[in-house]
Inverse folding.
């Protein structure tokens, strides 16, 4: 037997089998019973919500000679021919694949002929918003003078792209996203028919991932059943949907709860290295914390949606306060809003993770050591600034200006704990730096980042080499806070030199600069260098100053360092 996708096999064949679109089904059934059929319909709504299924059922109900209370019989030749798509009077056009004018022109030519076998000729045009303008106009002409016994059903996921002149000539039905309970129930009906047992939570995971689309839910189920033996577990469902496995969620939240920042960052990195999306991660974490809250209120409610409860989950639910869980949810929720327009989503999440892992510490009764406390204050200041900038960006204030973001983050109000760029040390590097060394470093940088463990990678991710000699390199950090942390991290420095030495023939020492201060530092170096080279100041005032300047050793040096495009000579 040929394998058929579940969504085809279990496609609804009657109005009362349609899931989650009761209003639409009842209205259409009534129209048929009362013989008040309009000549054009517009079905709008998200994908996989039943638009084409309803269109086909409607086409059958219009033509079935054995109509049963508005439902097609699905047994007569007419019904069967329509179900199989071989009745020439019922035509399906997928505008997404046939957006040419020809298809519609052809339709215009044939539309005037009466139906051959059926009572009504039905044209189902899916994704109608994809039609080209001229095809749209051709369709409009047809709709303006509809021939008798012809019915158009136009379906679209993007109704705002359909010309108003077309919308106004149709009867419009809005298909809603299908509710999670409805999807779960439908999956429950299907699974015994294909001899698959299931954990109830698995169905909830699939239903949530499908985001209100039954076709998506069935596609996910299809993928899941293709590799399982006979029972669909929640782990299977999570794997397929890209949801986090329960184990990872437990580990992450436990690390947060136990204030193990490094462990939390490592788990985060592992989660993303498995290809999880940031957006989905946040969704899962919000649901996880919601479950924690529910469990504290009424444990029996959670076992229903969450399946088997792990010991870690129970521990967290018992030991975390309501206030704490609410705060976590708030953090994740804010992050969800803030990463939407950010291309620094993963970096932002790392910072949120640090924030979460230090949250309870800040509010705990035990006063942290003075040093830690200052650190925390500094961290909080940084985070508030980051948050503010991201909010600004979202409001559309100069949305593309990542520079501004970086500058604002790296230029907080002068703080005692802010990173101080080691100017003299950087200048020392620059004196012996060469373009060749820098190029070599840049080439291996992606591989180098990949070679680091989670913690080091988190520290190095938002950094790039800007100058290098055979013994040292200057690396610019986008975030002040990371620059500070990295500069204090001796292990990191060792790992960096060691890993690099395996890829290149030198082992440069890590010298850190903040991206915002780097241009200024570089310029100061060039200026100071000019003096060191004892350039004759009188030459500078001559008319050919530019040429002299260009020939000067320090310019050569600058070009050697940064490349010609980076060096701009100012009189
Ligand atoms: Zn029939």
């Amino acid at each position: 037997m040929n394998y058929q996708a579940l969504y085809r096999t279990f496609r609804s064949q009657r109005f009362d089998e349609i899931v989650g679109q009761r209003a639409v089904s009842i209205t259409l059934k009534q129209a048929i019973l009362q013989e008040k059929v309009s000549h054009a319909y517009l079905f709008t709504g998200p994908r996989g919500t039943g638009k084409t299924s309803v269109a086909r059922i409607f086409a059958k109900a219009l033509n079935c000679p054995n109509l049963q209370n508005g439902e097609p019989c699905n047994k007569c030749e007419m019904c069967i021919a329509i179900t199989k798509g071989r009745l020439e009077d019922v035509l399906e056009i997928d505008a997404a694949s046939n957006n040419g004018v020809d298809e519609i022109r052809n339709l215009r030519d044939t539309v005037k002929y009466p139906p051959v076998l059926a009572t009504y000729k039905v044209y189902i045009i899916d994704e109608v918003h994809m039609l080209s303008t001229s095809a749209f106009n051709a369709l409009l002409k047809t709709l303006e003078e509809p021939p008798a016994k012809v019915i158009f059903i136009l379906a679209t996921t993007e109704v705002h792209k359909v010309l108003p002149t077309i919308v106004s000539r149709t009867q419009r039905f809005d298909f809603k996203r299908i509710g999670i309970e409805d999807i779960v129930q439908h999956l429950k009906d299907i699974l015994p028919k294909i001899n698959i047992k299931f954990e109830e939570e698995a169905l909830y995971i699939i239903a949530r991932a499908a985001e209100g689309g039954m076709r998506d839910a069935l596609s996910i189920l299809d993928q899941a059943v293709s590799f399982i033996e006979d029972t669909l577990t929640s782990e299977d469902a999570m794997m397929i949907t890209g949801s986090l496995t329960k184990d990872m969620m437990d580990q992450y939240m436990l690390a947060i709860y136990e204030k193990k920042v490094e462990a939390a960052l490592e788990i985060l990195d592992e989660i993303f290295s498995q290809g999880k999306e940031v957006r989905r991660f946040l969704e899962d974490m919000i649901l996880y914390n919601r479950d924690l809250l529910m469990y504290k209120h009424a444990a029996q409610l959670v076992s229903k949606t969450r399946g088997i409860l792990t010991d870690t989950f129970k521990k967290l639910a018992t030991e975390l306060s309501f206030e704490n869980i609410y705060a976590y949810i708030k953090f994740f929720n804010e992050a969800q809003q803030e990463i939407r327009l950010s291309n620094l989503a993963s970096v932002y999440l790392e910072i949120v993770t640090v924030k979460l892992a230090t949250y309870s510490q800040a509010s705990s009764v035990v006063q942290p050591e003075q040093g830690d406390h200052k650190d925390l204050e500094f961290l909080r200041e940084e985070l508030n600034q980051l948050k503010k900038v991201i909010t600004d960006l979202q409001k559309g204030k100069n949305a593309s200006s990542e520079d501004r973001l970086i500058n604002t983050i790296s230029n907080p109000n002068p703080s005692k704990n802010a990173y101080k760029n080691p100017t003299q040390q950087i200048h020392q590097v620059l004196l012996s730096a060469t373009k060749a060394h820098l190029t070599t470093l840049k080439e291996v940088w992606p591989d180098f980042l990949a070679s680091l463990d989670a913690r080091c990678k988190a520290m190095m991710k938002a950094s790039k080499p800007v100058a290098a000699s055979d013994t040292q390199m200057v690396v610019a950090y986008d975030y002040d806070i990371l620059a500070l942390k990295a500069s204090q991290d001796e292990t990191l420095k060792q790992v960096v030199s060691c890993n690099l030495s395996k890829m290149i023939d030198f082992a440069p020492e890590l010298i850190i600069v903040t991206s915002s201060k780097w241009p200024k530092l570089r310029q100061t170096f060039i200026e100071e260098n000019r003096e060191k080279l004892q350039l004759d100041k009188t030459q500078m005032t001559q008319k050919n100053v530019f040429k002299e300047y260009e020939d000067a050793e320090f310019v050569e040096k600058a070009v050697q360092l940064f490349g010609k495009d980076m060096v701009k000579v100012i009189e």
